[in-house]
Amino acid sequence: MKENYIEYAQKTFAKEALQLILDQIDLYYDDSPSISYTKYQKGDAVYLKKGTFLHGIPGGLENFDWVIQNGFIGNDFTGASEMKNKIKHSISMWNIQEDMFLRDYIKNYSGFTISYSIGRGPGSNFVSRLVPYHQFDEMTEEINNREDVWSYWGDQTKEVRFLPSLVSNKRQIAFILNMDSEYAKKIGVADVWNPSFDKEILKEFLDERYYETFLKERFHRDASTTNRESAIMFGLPIKLVEGVFIGKKLEKDENALHYIKSKLPHCYICNVDGEVIVGNQ
């Protein structure tokens, strides 16, 4: 497979972008780094360090198997999707912005994003705020009582679409990637959202219709944009996974839990309450 990815890169990229991808492919297949994993017992609360990555997948164990076999690789390299993504040749990750418990992350992002205008007309300002799970009424009451707010609208968080959550069963499996090691940090630098990348290089990784918008958004990200995404060029290996968190439906499936553990014996499994249900000690 490595040769196929290199061949695709040589046909697709030029100069600096090509070297970036070739370096990422080499890092991906580097078996020498020693990776350590956080250890948990059943009943422990999962704690996420700043910089931890989360990645959810659609479907069930059939897609889980594909990830176990292939790792996390951008769809453009694998041909696994016919969708035209705004960010190309990369794999999307949720990037934890501060140390927190997984249960708090899930509660915060099982809600929605509310946007509202302060004032009316050309001089108005738009604000976006995150509304945690079960705080909709509280937030809308606050906004409705403000005289300076003209209008407001809301949307589900992107996490509800892409991760197991408290409000939806569409996603049942997500991976927790430990990015603490020097190896992980090195491969994680190649992030399309990294503001240090030259805008000419980014042309290779962005749909042309999104390019100009992205150049503005990467320096002014907010709760709506969002301000918590990463897009790692080429991909990340499965060996960075230290845990799997699952949705409410899959939690009740003992056979599925045994299967996941058999494929990732060094990993813990936790639920949407952020509690470990299968330890790794």
Gist?
With 281 residues, the protein is of the alpha+beta class. Helices cover 33% and strands 22% of the residues.
Q: How would you describe this protein?
A:
The chain is α+β, with helices and mostly antiparallel strands. The protein folds into two domains: 2-106 and 160-278, no CATH class; 111-156. The protein is 33% helix and 22% strand. It has twelve helices and 14 strands. The chain has helices at residues 2-12, 15-28, 61-70, 75-78, 102-109, 136-144, 158-162, 182-188, 199-202, 211-217, 248-251, 254-263, and strands at residues 47-48, 53-57, 72-73, 90-95, 100-101, 112-118, 125-131, 149-156, 173-177, 229-233, 235-236, 241-246, 268-270, 276-278. The chain has a seven-stranded mixed β-sheet. A three-stranded antiparallel β-sheet has the order 7-6-8. Strand 13 and strand 14 form a beta hairpin. Helix 1 packs antiparallel against helix 2 (15-28). It is globular. The chain starts with a helix and ends with a strand. 32% of the residues are buried.
Q: Helix count, per DSSP? A: 12
Structural category? alpha+beta
Q: Please give the largest β-sheet.
A: 7 strands, mixed
Oligomeric form = single chain
Order of helices and strands: HHEEHEHEEHEEHEHEHHHEEEHHEE
What's the arrangement of strands in the largest beta sheet?
A: 10-4-2-9-12-13-14
Q: Which regions have little confidence, pLDDT < 50, spanning 5+ residues? A: none
The fraction of residues in strands falls at 15-25%
Looking at this protein, list some descriptive labels.
281 residues; 2 domains; alpha+beta; three-stranded antiparallel sheet
